[in-house]
Specification:
Keywords: Bromodomain, Chromatin regulator, Nucleus, Repeat, Transcription, Transcription regulation. This protein is mainly α and 112 residues long. The chain has 4 helices and no strands.
């Protein structure tokens, strides 16, 4: 996912968790680490029963970034953008599904 203002890909820091060797303090602060690779694996293995369960993991991913990083950091701001994009995508998907379920106008039947 690219940032619209400068073309920078903002999802890069969320694809893989930081290395335990390079950033052990992350694992002391974050009790439930998750990254996009884990979310993708969960999707592939059909671990999510609902769109809300997917949202729960995406929310956790973003909250982890916000808990570990300073508010003025790029990754903190990126996590806010990512969750906003998720909410927009989810709303769009839900609206599409609702539209599919609504009765569509068709030929009317008249009895003779």
């Amino acid at each position: 996912m690219k940032n619209l203002s400068n073309g920078r890909q903002i999802s890069t820091n969320f694809i893989n968790l930081p290395s335990k060797r390079e950033l052990p303090e992350y694992y002391h602060v974050i009790s439930q680490p998750i990254d996009f690779n884990r979310i993708r694996k969960n999707l592939k293995n059909r671990k999510y029963g609902t769109i809300d369960s997917i949202e729960s993991d995406i929310h956790l991913l973003c909250q982890n970034a916000q808990a570990f990083n300073r508010e003025d950091s790029e990754i903190y701001r990126d996590s806010k953008i990512l969750f906003g994009v998720w909410k927009t995508l989810k709303a769009s998907a839900v609206n599409e599904k609702v539209s599919e379920l609504e009765p569509q106008p068709g030929p009317s039947r008249t009895s003779k």
